[in-house]
Fold each of these.
Amino acid sequence: MSPRPLFLLFATTAVACGGAARTATSTASHPASVAECCLDLGRRVAAEHRVAAIDVRRFSQPQYWSAIEPFLTSPSLRVTPVGASTHGLPLRAITFGRGPTTVFLWSQMHGDESTATMALADLMSWMSRAASERDPVRDRIASQLTVVMLPMLNPDGAELFQRENAVGVDINRDVRRLATAEARTLRAVRDSIKPAFGFNLHDQNARTIGRPGNQRVAIALLAPAAEATNAFGAVRSDARLVAARIRSVLEREIPGRIARYDDTFNPRAFGDLMQSWGTRLVLIESGALPNDPEKQQLRRVNVIAILSALDAIATGGYRTENADTYTAMPVNSGSAVDVVIRGAAVVMPGQSPVRVDLSFNYDDPLRGGRARVREIGDLDEVTAFDTVDAAGLFLHPAPAMLTESRGALWLRIGAPVQMTLRRGADAASEVVREFGARP
Ligand SMILES: [Zn+2]
């Protein structure tokens, strides 16, 4: 089960060592132009190297490996078996480059968080051309870095598109006990290659908003705390600059939609512990973008982010970033609701209308469709992605939305949304708008 000897395959390329890891010296004196390179190049890689066989956010591990198979024959990529999932699906690392600085990226340790896994496929396609085509950025990454990618760490979870693994464990809370095969694999790869830099690639709640600004967060970044005091030591400070570089580039792609993730130290989580073990660790969380139900736009944003970070590490250009670029980011601040209807009078049969606000969420925050009531009452402090001003109007729940008992009716939290906004309390008055399935 523990293919430890296989890790020796990394040994020839992994000379970096924990907190004392050597990193590439800076060769770039124009940080702006370096950033420029990676925004345009990232867009181009995302478009020209998009692995078309993966085009929705839910896919299985066999589908993924068959999609990237064509690139893995490239002499520029090395595939290393590193373990197996609980159900025996193979876990493999793909390595690019032979440089002195080792960078480790792993994705989808939560099975329903696949955005970065898609982006890694596109990047592997681009990397696979290194032997046949010259590209200054790619050549620089290949000569300065050894990039080890472990996509879809939790293939059993991905099979059901769920967060946890096959025995219900959240792998990102298993760093201390290492009870799961997947966590043991992640720890073993980390110990084998001792990466100087690491990227922990996730998707966060699609309804998360950043404050100030109250915008839906597309990308949240974090240089996780390495200790409960939340201090910025040398390792975390470097990670902060890498995150700052990612923000600098992405602000020109998705302005105002980047935030900082909660930085409370979590001793059960891999990112936090890796930072304490000396790897400069950046967490990248994909949230959501408008009109991007399968996260294909966010996939492009991930390609730009990862490429920008790799290049900044290869050139040493991240050191020219300002810590304030990281510190001054908006912060993840809870969730918005999908829709709030403000100031409508709810019309219940046989009762006087009650003037309230009503919020509801779609079952799928990305695709919309079926929705359920979330809260009714004074929702002045609630932030919504879509606000309907219904002052002076009347909200008529359809019978199917109401619960009946002994001849009386209830409007309950969680009820399936099926209602009509009308001009009057009369059920025949003019319709302003319908919500949910038509009565
Ligand atoms: Zn996650």
Amino acid sequence: MVTDELVSLDEISVRYDLRGSSLSRSKIYLNALNGVSLNILKGETLAVVGESGSGKSTLAMTVLGLLRHWKGSIAYHFSRHDILNNSERKMKRSELRELWKRSSIVFQDPYSALDSKKLVKDIIAEPYLGHGKGGRQESEERSKELIRQVGLTEDHLGFYPDQLSGGQRQRVAIARTLINEPELIIFDEPTSSLDVSIQAQILNLILDIKEIHSLTYMFITHNLVVAKHVSDRMLVLYLGNVMEIGPTESIFSGPLHPYTKLLISSIPVPKSGYEMTQRESREADVNSVNLPGGCAFHPRCPVATKYCGWKSSEVMKLVIREAYLMLGLENLQGETADELSFRLTAPDAETAVSVNRMITGRDSFRIERSEVKENIVSCTLHAPWTPRLSQVGDRLVNCVLFDEEFKMQNGVSPPRSGR
Ligand SMILES: Nc1ncnc2c1ncn2[C@@H]1O[C@H](COP(=O)(O)OP(=O)(O)O)[C@@H](O)[C@H]1O
Ligand code: SF4
Ligand SMILES: [Mg+2]
């Protein structure tokens, strides 16, 4: 089958079992990827960006067939082999070997990635000999050619990793990846642990190598400046969910998803080498164990609507805080009835009316209905809507503001409210 896609991922979900970890003795799963679908097109560089913990490395491991427990399916369309990796069926050994020949990875840390007891020539040749592609003489010839291509000399083949600098080690790691003539290389933060002064050299080497070997790249980074420099298309991950995917240039000139907007607007100008960090203004304790309902980004989203997945406990805290700030109320008692409703007990009926007036006067509390009975204010939230990836021009965007199905089912566009 002729296709522009080298790899197609369909509804990939990965959860890690945290039993036995220090976190808990009971059954707790960490959802690292939640129904991720995407294509990697032949010849492109697809950047995968997202904060630490968003699932980037898990995605890399899944594409390389290195995870045991996952759900979904992945189709690979290599030049001479189509391979299907489906979580329902174990891949044959021969398929796995072919996958590992045709795809490869360069890790962030060139120190731990290379075996310190081996000579550079053996490190580079190992995957070639391991796959039984040819003999020692051929592997040596290829190693000599590759060591020059990555900007080192034949002398370096006789060195141990400890005798090389960080940048030189990463060059060796790149040469090793190339020895089996892969079609896909995944780079997992390949320059993050290097000195800023040599990051650009390694990035340019990576780009040159792509042209020489007609490669396809998946390039993982938390550095948006790097993503912009190297990629044709970009995928934004947040807590294991694809938030936006599309041409890099177009995303940078007009991001659509509120999270992408936040990331791009936070890039300091003109300082390069900016790294995304967890935002200090983060209001809720959100992580992949305790995933919020509706849209995973809602606790941090500056334009979240009442449909975005608020829980009664979250909104109740906000109302009590605002009642203190706006009305000076110190003794408003709250109690959740269920995930979508809560009750506030005011000291008297008159105060309850004031609290209700405050609630109805502000859309940003995202309360669907509220009513007062004596000194009790009862509040109900809107049922959460979990957005799906929707095509918007040249992008796919995962936000209720762009979700056509939401509009069809509800007959409305969600208001673009702010806080
Ligand atoms: N082997 C593992 N066991 C348990 N949790 C893991 C494991 N590997 C990764 N995680 C968790 O999965 C989430 C995604 O991790 P990862 O894919 O490494 O993200 P990223 O590469 O974007 O930093 C994180 O919350 C991380 O702590
Ligand atoms: S669905 Fe869109 S508007 Fe709602 S919280 Fe998520 S990103 Fe924000
Ligand atoms: Mg990682």
